[in-house]
Design brief:
Strand order of the largest sheet: 1-2-3-6-7-8
Structural class: alpha+beta
Order of helices and strands: HEEEEEEEEEEHHHHHH
Radius of gyration: 29 Å
Number of strands: 10
Shape: elongated
Number of domains: 3
Number of helices: 7
Largest sheet: 6 strands, antiparallel
Length: 288
């Protein structure tokens, strides 16, 4: 078989380009590995995406990480912080979104900035005018940590500490969510969208308001509608709790008596679900 000069040239070029194509798909580990951490507060999700540099025997604070200069708060790309809903950071509002977490460390205090420049590489091109929020926090001495670490540590159902740990330092930032306001808004929206025969959504919304002492004027209406649609252990026990709350103990006792009887007859319920209602019934009867 004879090859033209053009064909031979193309074969030679393809031989040289093959290694280049192989290198383009080569995936090598980073010295500072990627990491993510997330935490739910109520129905709100908080998350951090970052890279974890190691101490590796190096002086860190005031050296590898200079004092009083913007830092990407990790390695490689700038650390990203995402909140799925509006939150508060150190008591100041931060809208839902994804931000670059840029810090300015010093020996006695740290500035923590949530920058709208969320896709920065490192802190190159960081513009303080793009900060959505800045807060100031105090670093604390801590046990040594080799690989830089973020944690989101719940302190209550609506509050957490976002903590940076590295070398012998701990930097806490308090984050909070108005869980009750958020869930109440969700309840109202869900009931508004519910079908006319949907007792479960109305029951769940009213029950959450009752159990969490939320003064939603609609809760009694939701509970009454759920009971009218379906008289069962759940809807009757909720109606009984609302009757007791309004001061109508005889009606509460009557409703809870029926609820407990229906609960015991329901093969899908277990005694542990019925027992708290039996205790309420006993308490109300003792005070009658």
């Amino acid at each position: 078989m004879r090859f033209t000069r053009t064909a031979l040239t193309l074969l030679a070029l393809s031989a040289f380009s093959a290694p280049a194509l192989a290198q383009a798909t080569l995936n090598l580990p980073r010295p500072s590995q990627n990491a993510t951490v997330s935490q739910a507060l109520g129905t709100t999700t908080l998350s951090l995406k970052y890279s974890r540099p190691g101490v590796k025997g190096r002086p860190i604070w005031g050296a590898l990480v200079p004092w009083d200069q913007p830092w990407r708060t990790g390695a490689n790309e700038a650390t990203q912080f995402t909140c799925s809903d509006d939150i508060s950071v150190e008591g100041q509002p931060l809208p839902a979104g994804t931000y670059a977490l840029v810090t300015i460390p010093s020996a006695k205090q740290w500035i923590v900035a949530f920058s709208k420049q969320s896709d920065m590489w490192g802190s190159t091109g960081y513009d303080p005018k793009q900060d959505q929020l800045r807060v100031t926090v105090k670093p604390q001495a801590a046990e040594p940590v080799e690989w830089m670490q973020f944690t989101l540590d719940p302190m209550s159902p609506s509050e957490a500490e976002m903590v940076l740990r590295w070398e012998k330092l701990r930097v806490p930032v308090r984050v909070s969510v108005d869980v009750n306001a958020k869930v109440l808004a969700n309840c109202r929206a869900a009931v508004a969208a519910a079908k006319d025969d949907d007792w479960q959504t109305r029951y769940r919304a009213a029950n959450w308001c009752t159990d969490n002492a939320q003064a939603a004027p609609e809760a009694a209406e939701w509970a009454a509608k759920a009971l009218a649609l379906k008289e069962n252990f759940q809807t009757l026990s909720l109606a009984a709790k609302l009757s007791a709350k309004s001061g109508d103990t005889p009606r509460a006792i009557d409703q809870m008596t029926k609820a407990v009887a229906l609960g015991k007859a329901d093969k899908d319920l277990v005694p542990a679900q019925i027992a708290p209602m039996e205790k309420l019934l006993a308490d109300w009867s003792a005070k009658k």
